Amino acid sequence: MSEIKVDRVVDARGSHCPGPLMELIKTIRNAKIGEVIAVYSTDSGSKTDIPRWVEKAGHQLIGVYEREGYTEFIVKKVK
Amino acid sequence: MKRILVVGGGTGGTIVANVLARKLSRKEAEIIVVNDSSKHIYQPAFIYTALGYNLKERDIAREEKELLNKNVKLIIDNAVGIDVENRYVALERTGKLDYDYLVIATGSRIVPEEVPGYQIAYHFYSLEEARRLSKVLEEFTGGVIAVGIGGIPYKCPPAPAEFCCLLDYYFTRKKMRDKVEIHYLSPLPRTFPHEAVAEAITEMMEKKNIYWHPMFNIESVDPEKKIVYSLEGESLKFDLLVMVPPHRGAKVVEESGLGVDSGWIPVDKHTLQYKEYSEVYVIGDATNLPVSKSGAAAHFEAKVVGKRIYADITGQKSKLVYDGRVVCFCDAGFRKAIYMDFNYENPPKKPRFSYLWYLGKKMVNKLYWSLILGGTI
Ligand SMILES: Cc1cc2nc3c(=O)[nH]c(=O)nc-3n(C[C@H](O)[C@H](O)[C@H](O)COP(=O)(O)OP(=O)(O)OC[C@H]3O[C@@H](n4cnc5c(N)ncnc54)[C@H](O)[C@@H]3O)c2cc1C
To answer: Is the ipTM here above 0.85?
Structure first.
């Protein structure tokens, strides 16, 4: 995945409230269209949450990667 | 003698100053708190104000001076510039103040005007607006009340869900619950960020007949048609809209170029230090940390920072770090509440609604003014 250029990294590891999805929504609201955001999460709920919200909000989930001790989600703001 | 300058005399700023003033003599340090108002306001009281509780003035606001240790100097002024490179803070009337240690505790501000059509909405994120909402609730004769969120992050993430539960209690007591539909517009696929807590809150909402809409982040409002629209493409017609306004970091933070995005200051999530400036700490709502913007987080962070600065001044090296701890009570009405306690490593467990936690919340409201702000607990 190293060829994907990430514009913003949201390190939400250890966040239970507001949690990684809220951190992503906050970042997407501030990002420009076309920007790519990486979210790091240790929250088990993110695996269903983030893809569901990204789909509903009409953005693009580029990838989900298992890292050492956390999951990385790569999301592109498309609208 | 070292000068410790604390900008912002809210929850975090007051605690950090008091912790330091109890540990350091006047010879060792001069501790200054700068706040733009002489009053200290207890923001959790806003929810109760909106719901018509008869709170005493002293439960809502007190003079900051009487809350600070006598060894702390309070300056009532507006900070207009923070220069970490040259180590000074510019105040509107007092001029420049330099420092050896700086603690930025300027909290957040609300910007409802960032949501198109916001004029029709009510909220409980300031005392004036909470009072305005209490009047409209008193006169409400029935219909759809939508409670939603106009921007992320916002203070006290459970507050809107809690408000829905308290609305249920409010209208039940008024014997008109059957005339009111309560809708919670959740920004997430759940009723609360953490799964285990969401389970408990969802069960409670369903029991109370509170409708909840997943993934509804308010984008705009049509004030004429009384329709609220979400970022995700949905809409809801309402009779009364209660919208948590978007928040931003303090103006001085944005204007000094310290914040990212909407003015939140990036800090080390453990040491709470700002970038390479080890003498600059940031606590509370002002940070960009992935913890809830809450008095509880500000409280625990302030204690860590107080102890770290003390250790530094007295020539010890403090290894104390912030572990991400937040505690939180959520009042569901009918004298029942839940309690959560979690940190970066340990997520909250599924909480139980009980009378005990309701009493706990009431106790915190009392202890806030003494033991919490005093830095004793
Ligand atoms: C309705 C509601 C309910 C809440 N309920 C809870 C709850 O149940 N539990 C909980 O833990 N938290 C709760 N909170 C959140 C809590 O009140 C805040 O998170 C907390 O006060 C943050 O502390 P702080 O020190 O970061 O900022 P604040 O307490 O907001 O203090 C910031 C201070 O900085 C001052 N300031 C800002 N800019 C300047 C400047 N340029 N110059 C000088 N002074 C400046 C401000 O006037 C203010 O006094 C609630 C908040 C609201 C609105």
So the answer is: yes
